Amino acid sequence: MQPLVTSFFDNATFTFSYVVKDPNSACCAIIDSVLGFDYASGRTCTLGADKMLDFIQSQRLEVQWILETHVHADHLSAAPYLKQKTGAKIGIGSQVTQVQRAFSKAFNLEGEFSRDIQHFDQLFTNKAQVNVGDLQGVALHTPGHTPACMTYLFGDAAFIGDTLFMPDYGTARCDFPGGDAAELYQSIQQILSLADDTRLFMCHDYKAPGRDVFENESSVSKEREHNVHLGPDITQEQFVQMRRARDAKLNMPKLIIPSVQVNICAGNLPEPEANGQRYLKIPIDKF
Q1: CATH of the domain at 166
Q2: Confidence (pLDDT) at 25
Q3: C-beta of residue 187 within 8 angstroms of C-beta of residue 143
Q4: Domain limits at 225?
């Protein structure tokens, strides 16, 4: 079955979000939504999420899932806002608990996770079913970029998060807590074992040198044959060496501090303090 895929691009964070529709009904899922955030002012914005909602309303769609491929470090998720508007459930990979443990220590939020609070509505184990109307999907555990990364496969369309980029840009970094280049290599091989014509939808694009437009769709065959970090003769050891050398030179994402402490809570902003104001923390000399 071929799902109907509509993409939405956030220029500020170079993020692609998706509405995935069952071709036989009005049911759909939202994948990797974005809540706008201006770091200088601390102001949030729902403009991007509202564009998705306008599209959903115009097409008379019913949202069944709001899915996250992983805990994003480069943008805040709009999942709670979209849940409030649609009533859909928020889902992510079950290994998100590893990410929550690592970053709750960094932000001194361990008490938030010691209580019986379920931030996400559904934690998907590897190969768990994720159905959207008559469209049968599966959640594949594809760690490496983070321990909780998932690929959502619906028919001939796979939503691969940050695991791979467009062929001319390469593969994801692995230097966040719990990241592992060897695991990423194995996850990529899992994705590349899908049918050659499987459509692969990216979470980000940064326009590789020489390319003037943003792109978000590739395929298994294109990635296997043309990805600049891969190839039939690239061993896991060679990939790990390459990835570690590249990651050592990368800067931290500009929005990692607000993004991670919000996204480990399924996109929920911190509770207001006694004065009614919400606050984010900035760990000094931590990262």
Answers
A1: 3.60.15.10
A2: 97
A3: yes
A4: 4-263
Structure tokens at 136: 């049968």
Whole-number Å distance between alpha carbons of 212 and 273: 46
Query: CA-to-CA distance for 259 and 282, rounded, in angstroms?
Result: 11
- 183 membership: H or E segment, kind and range: helix 181-192
Question: Per residue in 118-157, pLDDT tens?
Answer: 789 999 999 999 999 999 999 999 999 999 999 999 999 9
Distance CA 66, CA 132 (A): 11
Structural domain contains residue 270: no
Residue 115 has what pLDDT?
A: 54
- pLDDT value at position 232? 83
Number of domains in the chain: 1
Helix axes 47-58, 79-86, angle to 10 degrees: 30
Which candidate, 201, 209, 197, 224, places its Cα nearest to that of 169?
209
Q: How far apart are CA 280 and CA 19, in angstroms?
A: 30
Closest by CA to 118, choosing from 83, 168, 151, 163, is 83
211, 168 contact by CB (below 8 A): yes
Q: Which of 90, 34, 69 is nearest to 191 (CA)?
A: 69
Neighbour count for residue 101 (Cβ, 10 Å)? 15
Give the single-character DSSP code of 171. Answer: B
Q: Provide the whole-model pTM.
A: 0.96
pLDDT at 188: 98
Domain-located, residue 67: yes
Rounded CA separation 196/183 (Å): 22
- Residue 284 near residue 42 (C-beta atoms within 8 A): no
- The owner of tokens 């470090």 is 73
The list of the chain residues with pLDDT below 70 reads: 113-117
